[in-house]
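Researcher: I've been going back and forth with a colleague about how UDP:flavonoid glycosyltransferase YjiC (YdhE family) might be arranged in three dimensions. Neither of us has a model we trust, so I'd like an independent prediction. The organism is Nocardioides marmoribigeumensis, in case that matters for your notes. Sequence below.
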Amino acid sequence: MAEILVVTWDGGGNVPPATGIARELLSRGHRVRFVGHRAQHRSLVDAGFEVAPSPRSRDFSGVQESSPVTMARTFSDRGLARDVIAALDARPADLVVVDCLLMGVLEAVRAHGTPYVVLEHLYDASYRSLLRGPIGLGMRLHGLRPGRALAGAAARLVASVPELDPSGERAGIEHVGPVVEWSPRVPGDPAVLVSLSTFAYPGMADCLQRLLDATAGLEARVVVTTGPVVDPASLRTAANHEVHRFVPHAELMPHMSLVVGHGGHSTTMRALAHDLPLVVMPMHPMVDQPVVGRSVARAGAGRVVPKAAPAKRVRPVIEDLLADGPHRAAAARLGEAVRARPGARRAADRVEDLVSHRRPGVPFGT
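Model: Here is an independent structure prediction for UDP:flavonoid glycosyltransferase YjiC (YdhE family). You can compare it with whatever you and your colleague have in mind.
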């Protein structure tokens, strides 16, 4: 039995890969603890996980809008890093699994000497782009050296598929596969799932309203999940709309014909796992959503529409992808690739391999 510490942050789509892998490790008899932002402690405990305290971490919540400066400070947070080291000193771990964006934590764990794995919950190409961009610059201005922290990792596990990741297969990373649940599709009448981010991006309520306007009167059932940021009561709806704050997508997607989303990696991979084409409306140009949307469009499994697109421009795109066509075969091909790499199981296998082959007192890679 191994002792594993998982470090995450309150960002939305980055959390399910971490919790999915942790749940798989728990099912195999390992001891797993989390360290994260205080705002997510309750949800982690409610999900059945042990959570170590994080009194020094910055106050951060994914349901509040945050500037790039705030995000850079959050990812560089040495307070959260001190909480992680305190958890390790209180109860040593065999391995630490760290969210790839928490560079302050990665630097601290490297210096501490406990072996660690970097969990990339997005395309590796998107991750590299973020590190080269303003957020990465902000990390470096905070005195961090991302290259050094990544080079010291025992492994870099990418929870995605190389068929879509522009990086493809390359040395130094391992595509373990998306951490998503899926069930066989259930035949039925046409149905569309509309769901944007659980993270507070500017203008999301307006975007959801335009998507509702675009699907009003469509010859399909339209299920909308608003998430914690947008109040369902604030939206105008039509007779064919069902609007909920939250319904598990794993329950909905087997009944859907199309997904309209923001290009979040987790939602996109779950849709493809169900062979569903996508309409992608990215919420922010500086994150991975535009890259995800373009990759799906290049593969022929969907289309990208701008965030500011009016309803009259979005509706024909939705109608085209709701119909039969080559986009459904493309989505099915990608679905097969996603299902062939069960991310939670493969990541847990890799963690177990790293722990079992580590000789006490000998660093990884020697």
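Researcher: What would you highlight for our discussion?
Model: I'd start with this: Residues 359-366 have pLDDT under 50 and may be disordered. After that, consider the following. Residues 3-178+341-357 form a domain with the Rossmann fold fold (CATH 3.40.50.2000).
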